Amino acid sequence: MALPKKRHTKAARNQRRSHHALKKINLFYCAKCKEPILPHRACLKCGTYASRQVLEIKEKKEKGKGKKEKKKEERK
Ligand SMILES: [Zn+2]
Known about the structure:
Layout: H1 10-17, E1 28-29, E2 36-37, E3 48-49, E4 52-53, H2 67-75
Antiparallel strand pairs: 1-2, 3-4
Zinc ion (ZN) binds next to loops.
């Protein structure tokens, strides 16, 4: 296995890590539903982009019923 020839100094290590910080994401708000969205992407809640309907949004299923519970109901 390859081994480093010499130890890196703290300064070299810190200089390398100076580019590792995460940048804050730039959020916009949907003009229709006011939901936070990423720029240049359609709103995933209402499906609009630049005030046009571009996606069909399916309504969310009822909460509380998982796959197992549905299978139980089918057996009955
Ligand atoms: Zn929206």
